[in-house]
Structure to design on (131 residues):
């Protein structure tokens, strides 16, 4: 059965896409901890990030690094925090979260909600920084 992330990658579920290449896909989290909270996923559905083949694993982190650089330029913050939890969706993914304090990375915090227009605006800003 396809994960929700595989359905997003295939275009079966809409998403605020940030970046894509042959192997990876990045999009805004629809239940973010902060404005610009982005998920980076391999297109090959793998449940556990450490089950990804070594070269693909390195490439995933390189892709995430590029997206994080654009995110930091587009969304004012001190750092881009990263998290790999992997329990909520059985498809390996990296959370990239703009943060100004440690508590910005607390996954127990209430999730934020932004209007679609604001989500698209931040996605456009991040995409513009990737060029």
């Amino acid at each position: 059965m396809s994960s929700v992330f595989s359905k997003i990658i295939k275009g079966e579920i809409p998403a605020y896409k940030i970046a894509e290449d042959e192997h990876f896909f990045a999009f805004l989290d629809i239940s973010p901890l902060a404005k610009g909270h982005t998920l980076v996923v391999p297109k090959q559905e793998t449940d556990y990030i450490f089950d990804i083949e070594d070269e693909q694993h390195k490439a995933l982190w390189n892709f995430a690094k590029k997206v994080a650089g654009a995110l930091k330029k587009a969304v004012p913050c001190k750092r881009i925090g990263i998290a790999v939890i992997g329990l909520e969706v059985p498809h390996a993914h990296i959370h990239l979260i703009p943060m100004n304090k440690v508590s910005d990375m607390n996954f127990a915090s209430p999730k934020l909600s932004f209007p679609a227009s604001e989500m698209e605006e931040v996605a456009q800003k991040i995409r513009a920084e990737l060029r």
Remarks:
- The radius of gyration is 14 Å.
- The chain has a mean pLDDT of 96.
- The first strand starts at residue 17 and ends at 20.
- The longest helix spans residues 54-74.
